[in-house]
Amino acid sequence: MELLGSMVSVSGDPIQRLSAYMLEGLRARLERSGSVIYNKLKCEEPTSSELMSYMSVLYQICPYWKFAYVSANAVIREVMENEPRVHIIDFQIAQGSQWMLLIWALACRPGGPPLVRITGVDDSQSFHARGGGLHIVGQKLAEFAKAHNVPFEFHAAAMSGCEVERENLGVRPGEALAVNFPYVLHHMPDESVSTQNHRDRLLRLVKSLSPKAVTLVEQESNTNTSSFLPRFEETLEYYTAMFESIEAAGRPRNDKQRIRAEENCVARDIVNMIACEETERVERHELLGKWRARLSMAGFTQYPLSCSVTDAVVGMLREYDQNYRHEESDGALYLRWKNRRMSSSSAWR
């Protein structure tokens, strides 16, 4: 590790930058201070406006979040085509930007827009980035919907996904329901961590609500139950591809905005996967095959993604480096960097 310390740099090439954060994780693991360093990373957060700008940098230079938003919106728009009352439950509402795109699309619907109601489930990082609670999201979306003549209501569920119960979601009779899980289910502890198994509990809860569609986007990586060495290797392989893809945006290596974005939005996940174990390890990714098994066990059947979903993703990817590619397989869509699958998008009912 001492030798590596002189070879890595947060302003170096992709493997040097990734190695700097993996080395930090190894140091924390060796000193048995993984949770301390992880919590320190969380506590020493930048100001709200700084964190928002860092998240915005990553959103602009790589398509991982846009892939989630565009594919889920295309599914929801399709299944809600003739519905007069639409309710969307978003388990990672963040800044609510995803739904501005959908509200705009619904405003143009032949015959007029439906009544749209959105329930947002919160998380601490988004709360900090916004500089306040879910009412900020609700107000922004309400103003946007009003400007586009879309009837709109917002319901706040200010809690983590692990705490959500049916009564928190405000489901009403006569609504067509869609549920969105964008890069969030892997944070729910499963049976290998807790007997409560919130990962499967949440899926069963959502199934009991009889949604027209559930959209799931997750990183295509296998780190949930892996022992340390396979998990280290998987993290190295996956994030090598991610750092290479960020590099392709062409930002200078000493670009402070990109460095801070990687430190605050990517490094904490890497440190957590390398340094932490048991309940302290919250980054627990699974491959789509495993998610497929979990959703099937909860009673869902897969809703094959149509060509309109694929077309929306293909259109979005034109804004980015040509090494980003889409792949259609078994009714789902994958976002790839070169030959590596990075994320999967699937829909269920």
Automatic annotation (TrEMBL):
Principal subcellular localisation of the protein: nucleus
Motif (VHIID): 86-90
Keywords (A to Z) from UniProt: Nucleus, Transcription, Transcription regulation
SAW: annotated span: 275-349
Compartment list: Nucleus
Region (Leucine repeat II (LRII)): 136-168
Family annotation (Pfam families): GRAS
GO cellular component assignments: nucleus
Statement: the UniProt record of this protein carries the keyword Ribosomal protein: no
Annotated family: Belongs to the GRAS family.
Protein known as: Scarecrow-like protein 13
UniProt organism field: Morella rubra (Chinese bayberry)
